[in-house]
Amino acid sequence: MSALTNRKFNEEMIQFVGKKVSVETSDKKNYNGIMSAIDEKLDLVLDNVEGQGILKLIINGAFVKEVKLLEKPFDLKGLAERLARVFPGLVRVRDDVGAIIVMEKIKVTQAGVEEGAGLAADRVKAVYDEFMRDSKK
User: How far is it, in rounded angstroms, from Cα 66 to Cα 105?
Assistant: First the structure.
């Protein structure tokens, strides 16, 4: 059970990377910025820290009291479900890398189609673009 719990925690933690977060430390300091990295000890790296004049900050996980996500995470599973309607049985979600693999050759992340070419990749891009438009409504 512990391995499953750790895996789930890591999957949740990965969703914070690239997002705006608020970090409170054990000495009551607060930092808002874009989380660019985090590890299993909660050591983390913040970019563009607001109001501090700090471009990049590394915080030792031993001092992290709380991390709050300040923006909605990308709905990777929602996009995968939509892609599965077009490519039934050919869509696999890789939470560990934050990507969807279509037909074992097309890689889609929240940034769009990152790998793959051809008609299938064009169709995946069209589904992605439609999903992004619908998400903004």
Answer: 38
At 69-93, the pLDDT tens digits run 998 778 889 999 999 999 999 999 9
**74: CB partners within 8 A, 6+ apart:** 15, 98, 110
* Tens digits of residue pLDDT in 8-41: 787 788 778 888 999 999 999 999 999 999 988 8
Q: How far is CA 73 from CA 27, 79, 121, in A?
A: 28, 12, 24
Residue 18's contacts (CB-CB under 8 Å, 6 or more residues apart) are 34, 35, 36, 110
Q: Does position 51 have pLDDT exceeding 90, yes or no?
A: no
Q: CATH: 3.40.50.1370, 2.30.30.100, 3.40.50.2000, 1.10.10.250. Which one for 2-69?
A: 2.30.30.100
Q: Average pLDDT for residues 52-63, to the nearest whole number?
A: 91
For tokens 């940034």, the residue is 111
**Parallel/antiparallel/unpaired status of strands 99-102 and 91-94:** antiparallel
| CA–CA separation, 34 and 24 (whole Å) | 14
